[in-house]
Amino acid sequence: MHEPSTWVGKGQLLLAKGEVEQASAAFRIILEGDRDNVSALLGQACVEYNRGHYGESLTLYKRALQVYPDCPGAVRLGIAHCHYKLGHFGKACLAFQRVLQLDPENVEALVSLAILDLQTNEAAAIRKGMKKMQRAFEIYPYCATALNYLANHFFFTGQHFLVEQLTETALAVTNHGPTKSHSYYNLARSYHSKGDYETASRYYWASVKEINKPSEFVFPYYGLGQVQLKLGEIKNALSNFEKVLEVYPDNCETLKVLGHIHVQLGQTEKAQEFLRKAAKIDPRDAQAFLDLGELLISTDTGAALDAFKTACSLLKKGGEEVPIEVLNNIAVIHFEREELELALQNFKEALGDGIWLTFLEGKANTYEVDATSSLLQYKDMQIFHRLEEEGLSVELSRNKVTTLFNLARLLEQLHNTETASTLYRLILFKYPDYVDAYLRLAAIAKARNNLPLSIELVNEALTVNDKCPNALSMLGDLELKNDDWVKAKETFRAASEATDGKDSYATLSLGNWNYFAAIRNEKRNPKLEATHLEKAKELYTRVLVQHTANLYAANGAGVVLAEKGHFDVSKDLFTQVQEAASGSIFVQMPDVWINLAHVYFAQGNFALAVKMYQNCLQKFFYNTDSQILLYLARTHYEAEQWQDCKRTLLRAIHLAPSNYTLRFDAGVAMQKFSASTLQKTKRTVEEVRSTVDELENAVRLFSQLSAASNLHFNGFDEKKINTHVEYCKHLLEAAIVHREAAEREEQQNRQRLDLARQVALAEDARRKAEEQRKFQLERRKQEDELKRVRQQEEHFERVKEQWKSSTSASKRRDRADIDDGEGGQGEKRRRKGGKRRKKEKSSRSRYEMEDPDMMDDHDEPEDDDANVNFREPGYQMNDQEDNAEENTQDVLAAAGLEDSDADDDAAAPSSAGRRKRAWSESDEDEISERKQQPSLLRENSADLQDSDGEFRDDTHKRQENAAVDDED
Predict the structure, then answer these.
(1) Rounded distance, CA 41 to CA 117, Å?
(2) Which CATH number among 3.40.640.10, 1.25.40.10, 1.25.10.10, 2.60.120.10 corresponds to the domain 4-236?
């Protein structure tokens, strides 16, 4: 068995070589034989420390210290490092201090204590830490760790030459990978800060190579990614930043950088994801919200506006000044969303106080200019010299130029072009090289149809930058308007060459030039036309290859296809462009609506064409574009909707009264309407009258055009106009004849209708009168029936009452007869009393038989006399009342119930009364009265007698009985 010292030496050698497991085996061999071997304990403690088992390493160091308390300070240095790795910074600090007590010049202890001081991030502690580092450097100038920390300190103080010297020395004196990585990192940072990205990239790579994995030292990856972004190596930078994010997944700076990288790669969704995560992790990070707003400004203006406002709020809460760029972006978003007042407020807030407020508030003094000077007012700078002479400061800082330009652009939108032009001139007064201000002034002059001044202003912009593609493109447009086609083509070609064919607008302009050249050829050379169309298609396709979402290029390609007759393909293309343009608030493309309507028109789908023209007019031109109205009128004309065509042309004439073409077209529409109406087989008078009116108007219009002084200037042929006049006059003569005939026919029809109407009215009146007469008869019949029923009911009630009263009177007479018999007249009274009883018996029998007969009489149908009497209800009612009274007295008399009152009441002038008085003059009064009562009843109740034979028989029987009684 070898000596323990041999195994200790072998273990130390293996540990120095990095063979940790074999070194651990060597130390364990010793510890198995001698558990208190200090050298083996210290070696095994180093092994466990390198393994990352800091707790076990600390235990072994403590055990070695217990075995040999007088061991050197290096043992306590190991204990301090273990406490540091375990996070016991207080105990680590005490251990390092104990090492310095034992060995005041222990460099490692000084460096470690300095690191602990630096990590506190307190100014006093940092100063103490740097003093300790400096002392360690003085004790041992070749301590790589001290050199690295000193280099880091001098990096932040800007002393880069010291950084380079210290890091180069550290690299020369150490072979430890992590330490060398720190040295390379410090050196790379120094070159990075100086802008030497190539050298910085090499040193960052060297630092990364000394690391086994990013978690050991991640800063070089971050620096390398930054340098690669500067060098344009975007994908390599993305890879390095993703490694940083793996170590620190919630690092906001890394998330923001990754968001920017994905923006450059066109991966906007991932970019938004990273930036939103950064803003969520740190809601107080204003920069995260600013970056998010910049990203969203092209896709979601609402979210971008919210992000910018949040950033402004955070900056204001933190006491920081809001950058003018942020306020400008907020104002621009409001401007694009057509929230013009909010945009104006934010522009003013961004600009603050300045001379521009004088112009906005209208406080600047104006001065008189003559007519010649007014044409050149967009180039006039005298107002600013006058303001300076008045003592006003005409200053404009460079960072406010863009915002002031945007404010002027907003004023243009608000139709305040005078103030806008003043602000543009203010920009040019302070910064004559600002090309966009020249172009906007040229646009204002162009809008006022001052093409020479507009061209002059564009040329001044080109003197500042003769390769400016915007200026060249605008100049080409102006030359086209000036009908200078050759110059326009050269200008557009120069604009395209200025950007090596990358300027889409210049390429589109060349395509438009070729298209217009194809369709404006008066001779319509088919070969030349096809050549220009093919060239235009090629240019539009080139733009689409570069920018697949370019709507204007797609629209141009659709126009070329439509000109070639490929209507279905062009219609699909126009529809896609229309949908894409409708979904964006930044694009206004009325042309694609018009082109789509043209395709519908060419396919004969006039209804859809009309609808598309009308929608375009309403959506983009507020129904005020005479050219689109002309397209609409042409569609109505082809659809044979003459009146709609005429009305549309009249609207266009109202908008453009000097356009003689519209007047001619209106006359043709009237002529066509009149001819079509006269060709009808059936036409109304109103149609013929309308035809006459239209022809008179057409003759008037064509006559005015024929007499126009500038007829040839408008392209009209006088002979053709006169032909229209003669034809309309001929139609007018025929229409007048037709009108007269139609009016005569209408008069005859009206008379026939009036006669038929009168006959119908008379028949209707007769029918209504007959119905009314029948109704009145029926109503009177019902009323009489009701009256008769009511009278009979009343009669029945009176009979009942009289019968009750007569019964009581009969009883009183019986008692009186008994009293008279006792007085001495017995026989005669008995004879009379017998007669009375017989009469009462007969009366009761008669009444019992009469009552049902009277009730049955209500059901008897009316005879002819009743129908006659129905027309004289007044007399009938009086007769009925008299008959009712007589019947009542007759019934009572027949029943033997009459009294003196009844005889007095029966004195009314009637046939029954006269007969009763005749019978009363005879000697036998009682018998005659009894005989007369039945006859009275028969006279007054003829209907009852006719229907009831038993009643008559009963009367004869009573008369016979009365005669027998008299004989007795």
Answers:
(1) 31
(2) 1.25.40.10
